[in-house]
Design brief:
By secondary structure, the protein is α/β, with parallel strands linked by helices. 42% of the residues lie in helices and 18% in strands. It has helices spanning 13-25, 27-36, 99-113, 125-128, 131-144, 152-167; strands at 4-10, 37-41, 48-49, 62-63, 68-72, 82-85, 88-92. The strands form two sheets. It has a five-stranded mixed β-sheet. Strands 3-4 form a two-stranded antiparallel ribbon. A hairpin with a 2-residue loop joins β6 (82-85) and β7. α1 packs across α2 (27-36) and α1 (13-25) packs across α3 (99-113). The mean pLDDT is 95. The structure holds zinc ion.
Length: 171
């Protein structure tokens, strides 16, 4: 079930192409994302506004219209790497960032744009983790070091759960 369709606009054709091609390059990770969110190339220029009085969001390009995902690269000197409002989102994708990192950033912001608590992976562990997840989560820092859970592996697992929750109408 498609939750929402987005027209993808960007600061360059290259960054738009990259984001549109992510799902195809990461099929197993992106399957729940692709089923729920439809991305297509936006026509023309997106209407953008920028806050100037909050340092966190300085220079950050927010789309004005619903149904728009705006993606940008280093040519826009924004401090925040992603943001979302109802039905729209904007985020940075740099060439040196891994596809899985960028896919998870897109997924994160689009979940926010449909009202899901994308920031709460840690707080909601009891709800989304299977028994196997719990065991692996406990062992993870012993292998990868303390504070190492914020990786595409875990983000994708949490976002898949949130996506199913959104599809079921959960707020
Ligand atoms: Zn967030």
């Amino acid at each position: 079930m498609t939750l929402r369709e987005y027209r993808v606009h960007g600061s360059s054709e290259a960054v738009v192409d990259r984001v549109l091609g992510l799902a195809a390059r990461l099929p197993s990770m992106s399957a729940p994302f692709t089923a729920a969110f439809g991305l297509s190339r936006g026509e023309g220029e997106a209407r953008i506004f920028r806050y100037s009085n909050d340092p966190t969001w300085e220079q950050f390009p927010f789309p004005i219209d619903q149904g728009v995902l705006y993606v940008f690269d280093h040519t826009i000197p924004a401090r925040a790497t992603g943001g979302a409002m109802e039905g729209r989102a904007s985020l940075r994708a740099l060439p040196q960032e891994a596809d899985a990192v960028v896919l998870c950033r897109v997924w994160h912001e689009l979940l926010h744009s449909v009202g899901q608590p994308a920031d709460d992976m840690h707080q909601r562990r009891e709800a989304w983790q299977t028994l196997a997840d719990r065991l692996w989560w406990a062992v993870w820092p012993l292998i990868f070091g303390p504070g190492s859970h914020d990786t595409p592996y875990w983000h994708a697992r949490y976002y898949a759960w949130l996506t199913r929750r959104a599809e079921a109408g959960g707020e």
